[in-house]
Amino acid sequence: MGELIHPFIVYGFCVLGGAALCLALPRGGRSPQVLGALAGALIAGLALLALAVKFAPVLPNVYFYIFSLIGVGAALRVITHPRPVYAALYFILTVISTGGLFVLLSAEFMAFALIIVYAGAILITYLFVIMLATQAPQEDQTEVLASYDTRAREPVAASVVGFLLLAVLTTLFFRGVDRLPMPPSRVDDQALLADMPRKVENSLRSAGLLREGEAIREIDTGAGVVRVAAGGAVRDIPRSDWPEGMGVSNVEALGFNLLREHPGSIEIAGVILLMAMLGAVVLSRKQVEMDEEAKRRQAQKLGQTTGGISDVTGPIGGES
Amino acid sequence: MTLAQTGAPAPMAPSTLGHYLLVSALLLVIGLIGFVTRRNLIIMFLCTELMFQAAGLAAVAFGRYHLNLTGQTLVIFILTVAAAEAAMALALVVLLFRRKESLNAEEWQDLKG
Questions:
Q1: What is the pLDDT of residue A137?
Q2: Which CATH number covers residue B56?
Q3: Does A10 reach chain B within 8 Å, measured CB to CB?
Q4: What pLDDT is attached to residue B16?
C-alpha cells in the first residue's frame, strides 16, 4: 500500500514546524514566542489530523491525541521557557502525558514507574539543583533572568537541522511500518499461570472453586485445565470456570520477562547505579577553587550590597 | 474505548504504531533542538531527559506492536540510565556552577581542544 502519508506533506509539516520553533525559541527582549509556540502546537495537531484523515477506520484511541498534544506542547515549552523552574515543571507535564501514552499501550506498570521515578525523583533533584545554582536576586532587581536563559544559541540553524532529522525519521517510519512483520494474532496470556501456583490457588479458593482439603496437582495451561486432587480423587477445573481475576497482569508478566530473559542486564544496571553513586559522591566531595573572574564578580556583587567593603575576596574564595 | 486492559492486548494496526512513532520522533527532535540551542546547563540536561522519554515511548510502542514485553523491560533500563545520568550530571553542574558562579555553557568555551 506504499507510504502511510505522502512524503511531501510530511516535509511541508516539517518546514512549518521548524519555522514555528524558530519563532518560539527565546531571543531576548520581546520576541513572538507565544505566537511561535501556538503555531508549533497547531502544526503538530494538523499533522496528527492529516494522519487521522488518511486512516479513518483504524485510528488510535482519542486519548492518544489528548496525551500526545499535551506532551508535545509541554516539550516545546520546556525548551522555550526562559525560566528553568518552569521548564522543569513543563517537563513533568511531558512525563505525565508519556505515562498516559504508556497506559494506552497497555504498559501500566511502566507508566506508573515512569511517573514515580521521573516526576517524583529525578525532577525533584533537578528542581533542587536549579534552586541551588541560581544567583539570589539583588534587592533593587525584580527580574533576575540571566542573559543565557533569555537568548537561544543559533535557533535557526538548530531548527533546520532538527526538522531535517524529523523529516528523515518520519519518512522512514511511515514507509517502514507497513513492511514490518505482522504481529502474532494472539498470544497466550495464561501461559505464565503455570509458574504461579500460589496465585492460582488463592484465586480459585476465593472463588469457591477449590473445596476444603483439595490441593492443586497440576496447572496445564496448554489444555486449559487446573487439575486438583483431594486424597485419591482427581478432578479438572476447565478454563471456562476460571474466575475473572485469574489472568496474568502486566506487572507479573513484566517481572517474569525481566528476571527470566534479562538476568544479566539487571546486574549491569546495578553496576551502573553503583558507579553513579560513587561518581556523585566523589564529585561533590571535591574542593572547588573559584575562578579568578568569578571571585572578582562575586566580590563586586557583595561590595555593592554591603556598601563597598572591598577586601572580602579572601574568605569567599576559601569558603566554597 | 476503555483505558484498563484485562487479558492479552489485541494486535495493533501498523498505522497506529506510526502515530506513536511520530510522537516519539517529535519529542526526540524537540529535545535535540533544545540541547543545541539552550545555553543553561540544567536545561541542556533536561533536554537529554526529553530524548530518553522519546526513546522509551518508541520502545514501548514497538513492544506493544509485537505483543511482547521486551520493550517495557528496555524502559526499565532506560530509567536506570536516566537516574544515573541525572545524579552524575547534576553533581557536575553544581561543581561547575561553584567554579564560575554561572550556569552558562559558553563560560566553558575554553575547554574545547
A1: 62
A2: 1.10.287.3510
A3: no
A4: 84
Residues 6+ apart with CB under 8 A from B107: B100
- Put simply, whether A1 touches B (Cβ < 8 Å) is no
Would residue B112 count as lying in a domain? no
**Is B60–A72 a contact, with Cβ atoms under 8 angstroms apart?**
no
- B:45-84 residues touching chain A, CB 8 A cutoff: 45-47, 49-50, 53, 56-57, 60-61, 63-73, 75-77, 79-84
Contact state of A148 with B102 under an 8 Å Cβ cutoff? yes
Q: Provide the residue type at A147 as one letter.
A: S
- Spatial CB neighbours of A48, under 8 Å, sequence gap ≥ 6: A65, A68, A69, B19, B22
The mean pLDDT value of chain A amounts to 79
Is some CB atom of chain B closer than 8 A to the CB atom of A186? yes
Q: Across the interface, do B36 and A135 touch by the CB < 8 Å criterion?
A: no
**Angstrom distance (rounded) from CA A252 to CA A250:** 6
Evaluate whether residue B96 is within a structural domain. yes
Q: How far is CA A49 from CA A44, A53, A60, A120, in A?
A: 9, 6, 12, 33
Q: Which residue of A has its CA nearest to B13?
A: A58
pLDDT digits (tens, 9 = 90+) for A283-308: 878 676 777 777 787 778 777 665 54
Among B26, B27, B21, B81, residue whose Cα is nearest residue B50 = B27
Residue ranges per structural domain of chain A: 7-138+145-179, 191-247, 290-314
> Quick one: CATH architecture of A7-138+145-179?
Up-down Bundle (1.20)
Centroid of chain to Cα A135: 30
Q: Taking CB atoms and an 8 Å cutoff, what residues of chain A touch B75?
A: 107, 110, 114
pLDDT at A86 over 70: yes
Chain B contacts in chain A segment 197-226 (CB below 8 A): none
- The answer to whether residue B34 scores a pLDDT higher than 80 is yes
